[in-house]
From TrEMBL:
Gene3D superfamilies attached to this UniProt entry: Vaccinia Virus protein VP39 (3.40.50.150)
Record SUPFAM superfamilies: S-adenosyl-L-methionine-dependent methyltransferases
Gene Ontology molecular function: any one: methyltransferase activity
Span of domain Methyltransferase: 35-161
One Pfam family per UniProt: Methyltransf_31
Keywords: Methyltransferase, Transferase
Keyword match Transcription: no
Protein name: S-adenosylmethionine-dependent methyltransferase
GO-annotated biological processes: methylation
PANTHER family: PUTATIVE (AFU_ORTHOLOGUE AFUA_2G14390)-RELATED, TRANS-ACONITATE 2-METHYLTRANSFERASE-RELATED
Amino acid sequence: MSVFDRIASHYDSPKQLELAQIILNELENSLGETNEKTLLDYGCGTGLIGLPLADRFEKVTLIDPSKEMITIVEQKVESMALKNTKAMIDHFSKEHIPEITADIIIVSLVLLHIPDTKEILEALYQVLNPKGYLLIVDFDTNEKARHEKVHSGFDQNKLKAMLETIGYQSIQSNTFYHGEELFMRQDASMFVLRAEK
Ligand SMILES: C[S@@+](CC[C@H](N)C(=O)[O-])C[C@H]1O[C@@H](n2cnc3c(N)ncnc32)[C@H](O)[C@@H]1O
């Protein structure tokens, strides 16, 4: 059982719900018209980001490698009676990219947990439709937040340079929130980055 399987049943804490609302408010600024678009929420966790947005998309796919997280998403999809939304247990790699496409991909608080940043950004590029875009939400670099399995946040400029080498275009980012004890019990800031195919 992975660490995310273990935390799934108590992931939706008041603090996490508050953080998700802050992220959703910021993402709403970047989304524009989405009625005829498809959304992939990659690393969806319990669906705190993808599910509240589901009504404004034609079709939504939520993907996470944690079986327990996806079980919770499926229960929420049923209780919210979302007909356009499906959840899948999966994760992408160089060798494995499922037959799926999306106009918009959201990767919220996930990149920090994936060891090979470039590999996952390349895989997501393949899944994006032409003119589609990726929205990354993550923490700015914070050397005090150290863990062997987690990136200590990201330098927005380095991430942009990496995305450009893959082929992403019109890349923009900004820090939108500073909070206390936000990231491994350290004060931290979050950024949103938008990159088009
Ligand atoms: C901190 S949670 C974020 C959940 C959700 N995106 C949110 O903002 O509330 C991180 C999630 O990333 C998932 N994850 C970990 N490694 C992953 C990978 N290689 N590919 C996709 N998701 C992954 C975990 O299972 C977990 O559900």
